[in-house]
Amino acid sequence: MTDDHDHDQDRDSGLPDRPATSLTVVSLQARGAEASRTEVTLSDERTFTIATEAVLDLGLSRDTRVDAGLEQELVDADLRFRAKDVALGLLARRAHARRELRDKLHRKEFPGRVVHEVLDRLEDIGLVDDRAFAESFVRDRVRLKPRGRRALRAELARKGVRDEADPAIDAVFDDEAVDDRSLAREAAEGWLSRQRSGVLDALDEGYRSDVGRKALRRYLGWMGRRGFGGGVARGVLEELRPD
After folding, report:
1. Which domain holds residue 169?
2. Which one, of 193, 195, 190, 207, lies nearest residue 243 by Cα?
3. Would you tell me how many other CB atoms lie within 10 Å of the CB of residue 226?
4. Most Cβ neighbours (<10 Å): which of 95, 134, 181, 211?
5. Is 33 left (phi over 0), alpha (psi -120 to 50) or beta?
6. Contact 183, 173 (CB under 8 A)
């Protein structure tokens, strides 16, 4: 797993190659709801979009002289604003784990240091929370697409959530009063309801015939991919279709 900073190694400062000139701020234009962003235009006609609070932090006003250090701060502030805007757009669609957001921002080619700063800020204000994300994810699965603990843990790991996986699963299972066996029964009921009568008859034959063994392998494979072990899967099948 890469750290949020790793994508900086092959990136330059973001400043263009040009002769040293005397730069100044020529305009500051507040934009957006409640003037949340400001467009800062320099005398070389470049415009940076930054958070309005950053204007105050950087001490900007019209005719402010812009040296190399301030120029780099403007570049960084612009990148942070744009990265945060992308992250908020993603979060507006659905909850994300931190690593999901990190990977998507990296694919947008934001530098790792900027991504790290933005995600830290979003965590500080509670918009990125891996524990809350994990609980929401598990609850959706429990209610809509039953999965066993093993599958839930694997799905969360693919989203970058590891340390919070088991506590989140435990909390949701307790809250929803479910366990692997009750979820397996619900999943098996759904699978059986979608099968043709010939498959159900074959399942009833079980290991006594080739078609029965084939049907059982199909059923056990489907249940296994949803995190239910063979013993639990066979047990709930026997409950649902007793001899």
Report:
1. 130-176
2. 207
3. 20
4. 134
5. beta
6. no
Among 176, 210, 232, where does a domain finish? 176
Q: Hey, what are 5's tokens?
A: 């900073």
CB atoms within 10 A of CB 18: 7
Note whether 116 and 6 are within 8 A (CB). no
Sheet holding 65-66, edge to edge: 47-51, 37-42, 23-31, 65-66
Question: How is residue 147 annotated by DSSP?
Answer: -
The one-digit pLDDT tens for each residue of the chain (243 residues) are: 445 655 554 444 555 555 555 899 999 999 988 889 999 999 999 999 999 999 999 999 999 999 999 999 999 999 999 999 999 999 999 999 999 999 999 999 999 999 999 999 999 999 999 999 999 999 999 999 999 999 999 999 999 999 999 999 999 999 999 999 999 999 999 999 999 999 999 999 988 999 999 999 999 999 999 999 999 999 999 999 886
Total domain count, the chain? 3
Domain CATH code at residue 61? 1.10.10
| Ramachandran class of 63: left when φ > 0, alpha when ψ lies in -120 to 50, beta otherwise | left
Q: What are 31's strand-pairing partners? A: 37
